[in-house]
Amino acid sequence: MYTSKALKEYKIKEIEYCRIHGRTDLSQPAVPLFWNGSGIELNVSGSELWLDIEVDFELFEPWVSVELNGSFMSRQMLMPGRQYFCLFRCMTPSEKKTVFFRRELQAMHEDDACHIVIHGVLSDGQFFPVKDRRYKLEFIGDSITSGEGTYGAKSDTDWLSMYMSSSINYATLIGKELDAEVRLLSQGGFGVYTGWDNDIRHNMPAYYDPICGLAFGEANEKLGAMKPYDFSSWQPDAIVVNLGTNDDSAFHQPPFTDPETGENHKMRRKSDVANCPVSRSQTGEWRINKAIEPSSMGTSNAQASPVTVSTSQTATEPKTISSAESAEKDYLEEDVAKVKKAVTDFLAHLREKNPESHIVWVYGMLGYALSLSISEAVSSYIRESGDTNVFYLQLPNTTEDELGAHAHPGPSAHIKAAEILSDYLAKRLR
């Protein structure tokens, strides 16, 4: 294979004009990519450009994508080991090219070995300043924000890395439309109060303060994932929170038993209480006295469940507001209150860490069942705090023909959501 004889090796931190995207530990000699959407951007001349990267994983292989001059060029999985990754070759040497190398996969809390590290580049060109974006946007969410379902056939129901993306994702689409630098913090199956399966440890607010609180294991710890994040280093113009879908799913799942404490956790419907008496534990948490039969959900790896009253993996018809009201009426008020408190507490924490950012809470891409509760919680926070730089925006539900892999929103659903949010943010951030 032909390779330019003029290629030079550069350590990534030697390149003055390298734009690093996403939260990372800047004290590292290399650049770890922890979150989906994280990556590097270069404006470079030359005929060839290669990345010197290090990759590892046990179960969930990381996927990456490449953009060249703003256009999507490639997407692929990475294999373990230190390797050179070609971004382009045989191009006109004198012309400048803007290249964006992006991590597609969310932080994988179930795979301690999963990581990508950029050590350097090989180039036969020169590096130039990367264009500054007009805005900075932060997105916090679940599998929807992880882009699950944006790739793959509608019939594909496995929970796998290859179906998640940040390249075709409502957040990335908004960034392109508004000329914004985008950061994503998301995890499939997580909620604002509880995960889809009633595991209350799986709530996004608990992992917001570290650089990447969901990248576990010795390797990620050495790369700085658990270090406190310096919020002053990057203050977003707007924060979009897309949480609540998995909190709703928890109302339709069996109890979860915490393996460390033995405590049972269950978001209850009134029908659950009628058929299954409950009592409080000494910690004040509600405990189920009678076991509920396991659902027909798949393995424990099927983290992100679509919003549906049944326990199957098949998406239901889009819910109307009236049907959402009906569904929520069956939810025990005491447990709905936990979700509402989690919303107001997280808004207060976001404001503490991001004093000037506009915050918009969005919901609805996989059902409306908690829309009234979440909107009421947002209104309550505004009323009690006096913080008027916060808003609730309902997004359109995903229709049957808009579904992608694993019964999640497909590309057309993300495009639809991006159009609405882009229009809102454009007017708000003027």
Describe, in plain words, how this protein is organized in 3D.
This protein has 430 residues and is of the alpha+beta class. The protein folds into two domains: 8-128, Jelly Rolls (Sandwich), CATH 2.60.120.260; 135-253 and 280-428, 3-Layer(aba) Sandwich (Rossmann fold). The protein is built from eight helices and 20 strands. Strands 2, 4, 6, 7, 9 and 11 form a six-stranded antiparallel beta sheet that branches. The longest helix has 21 residues, at 333-353. The termini are far apart.
Task: Tell me, briefly, the overall form.
Answer: globular
The topology string of helices and strands comes to EEEEEEEEEEEEHEHEHEEHEEHHEHEH
Any idea how many domains?
2
Radius of gyration: 22 Å
Number of strands: 20
Give a summary of the structure in a few sentences.
With 430 residues, this protein is of the alpha+beta class. It has helices at residues 170-178, 218-222, 245-250, 270-275, 321-329, 333-353, 371-385, 411-428; strands at residues 8-11, 19-21, 31-33, 39-44, 49-56, 63-68, 71-77, 81-88, 97-103, 115-123, 127-128, 135-141, 180-186, 238-242, 256-257, 264-265, 278-280, 286-288, 358-363, 390-394. The longest helix is centred in the last third of the chain and has 21 residues, at 333-353.
Keywords:
430 residues; alpha+beta; Jelly Rolls; Rossmann fold; six-stranded antiparallel β-sheet; five-stranded antiparallel β-sheet; 8 helices; globular
